[in-house]
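Morning. Coffee machine broken again, so started the prediction first thing and wrote up yesterday's gels while waiting. Chain of 124 residues, entered below exactly as on the submission form.
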Amino acid sequence: METRTVDGITEEPTLGALLRSVAYHRLPTQFYQMLQMAIPFAAQLWFWGWKRSAGWMVVVSLFGLWALCEQRVDDLGERSPRAAWPRIARRLTGGVAALLAGGLALEGFVQLMRVVFKCPGCAG
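Came back before lunch.
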């Protein structure tokens, strides 16, 4: 992972810095390709009954949208009036993706604990 240097100070390698690095260093066409593939795969997985996998594909698609909005805001400038809608979309997609990913991770953890603590006399 590359770290940015701001005013001679190296930025801490955090998850946010990693995601921004991916958003800034990848070509926008790669994000378009990710968006074009993730949503149809999510629909197909949903129809097959693989709802968790479909949810993760939606998270991938939302990350692609977030990255596109991040690039657009960076191109226009953070305080530009033309960047108002991309800023709103960036926050919305980031929030929905975080909630969905957190919910899916929590549900996966609960399923794992269900298998680990399965006993003959337990309720459920």
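The chain has one domain: 27-116. Going to sketch it on the whiteboard this afternoon.
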